[in-house]
C-alpha cells in the first residue's frame, strides 16, 4: 500500500506542481497476492479533478520475473489535495478525459464523490435527529 500511495503522490505532485497530501484511499481491491520475488508494475492515472483535489486511479500488476506476463493484483482510487507551504489548498489544473475509458472513470469517480457527500449528509441528519428526539437507535 505504501508503493500505491507513493506512485499516486508522484503523479499528483507532477500534475499540480505542488506538494500534495493524501485525502483518502477508496475501493482498494486486493485481487491476488504478490509473491516475494515477483515483478511489480504500478500505473497511476488522473481521472478527475476538483478545485484543489486530484482523483487518481492506481492499478498494480505483478508477474513472475522469468515471464513477460503480468496480471492485475490490486486497483484503487486515491484522492490528493494540493497545498501551499502553509497547508492551505491550492487550485490545480482542470482535467479533461482523453478517451472513453477515462471518461467512464471520471464519471464513476464523480458518482462516488456525490454518493459519499450524500452519505455524510444523511449521517449528520440522523445524528441531529437522535440528539433532538432523544432516540438512541440507529
Describe the 3D structure.
This protein is of the alpha+beta class and 138 residues long. The chain has a domain at 2-95: Thiol Ester Dehydrase, Chain A, CATH 3.10.129.10. Helix content is 36%, strand content 34%. It has two helices and four strands. The protein has a four-stranded antiparallel beta sheet. A hairpin with a 7-residue loop joins strand 3 and strand 4. Mean pLDDT is 79; it is low at 113-131.
Q: Would you spell out the secondary-structure blueprint of this structure?
A:
Layout: H1 2-16, E1 19-30, E2 39-49, E3 53-63, E4 71-83, H2 100-133
Antiparallel strand pairs: 1-4, 2-3, 3-4
Low-confidence stretches: 113-131
Q: If strands are numbered along the chain, what order do they take across the biggest sheet?
A: 1-4-3-2
- In DSSP terms (H or I, runs of 4 or more residues), the helix count works out at 2
What composes the largest sheet?
A: 4 strands, antiparallel
CATH class of the domain at 2-95: Alpha Beta
Task: Tag the structure with descriptive keywords.
138 residues, 36% helix, alpha+beta, 4 strands, 4-stranded antiparallel sheet, Thiol Ester Dehydrase, Chain A
Compact overview of the structure:
With 138 residues, this protein is α+β, with helices and mostly antiparallel strands. The protein has helices spanning 2-16, 100-133, and strands at residues 19-30, 39-49, 53-63, 71-83.
